[in-house]
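Record pair follows.
FIRST:
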Amino acid sequence: MIILLGLVGLGVWWVIKTMGQAGQQYTEGMVRARESASSVKCQLNMRSVWQMLQTSATADGTYPQSRQELEHLCGDSRLLRCPDPNGAPYVYLPPKRVDDQSVQIVLYEPNAVHDGRCSVLLSNGQLGLIRPEELKVALAQMAQTRQ
């Protein structure tokens, strides 16, 4: 009888332990999926802004010269903000000329909320995720070339 009760107890303990581990894995998977979805949504926002910038460049021959002009062009200020709860509004660095072939950062998020990285939009339309240290270096190089 004691052996039987011991085996039943061991079986119950094993089921509870396994269910607890499965629940933890499920929770971790949901958190990763939410973070991934936030990163994709952020990059989709930036892609939409890029399309607006290209439309403006084609129609007017210029880019918006301020964030306010860009907000007016986009029509929806949610496009200019990372959808992550810890995200912040994007920083807009207007390109000087439409015919400039140099690749520079046009739009970036100041907070590193996507697995420790910041989303950036380059003047050639490329999107990327870079570490804050790399962003600082790139912004410093841009500042030197603009002077």
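SECOND:
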Amino acid sequence: MEAFSDGVIAILITVMVLELHVPRGTHWHDLNKEAPVLLTYVLSFVYLAIYWNNHHHMLKATRRVNGLVLWANMHLLFWLSLVPFTTGWMGQHHFATTPTAAYGIVLLAAALAYYALQAAIIAEQRDDPILKTAIGRDLKGKSSPLLYVAGIALAYVDRWLAVAVYVFVALIWLVPDRRVAGMIRAAER
């Protein structure tokens, strides 16, 4: 499951980079035309890297999987597979309202899918509560969907506020959750 997920995420990053076009000129100002696409790529790359990191740590704390866990993982990968599409749409249209809202919808759906995967894994590990203990109250995990909803709504008020919310959520997740890694190391001793 981990190797398959790693491969899918690697392919998604590759698909996104193919949307970047080399500027025609050789001066810095020639990048201006491609700046929105480049900026959306950077944001989405960071998001996919965050998901990959947290998914990796979560699976390290997983001893058993069942059908529900496998399908929950596929559900997450489905939403992550839409990141390149909404990234391209938002970047090519210079952060227009609807593409920016759609980007937030995909981020929201991916966050909810990740939460569902996490819940399925915890349920399957009922006699081995490493992940459940490490996650604790999961304030970041519970607040992120609310922030995405705010970002989606803000896209229709001021698209830059929506983008700021998406960047803020990425920043709070940028540092991997040390609790999970710490609990895994403690359990291995």
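COMMENT: Residues 2-188 form one domain.
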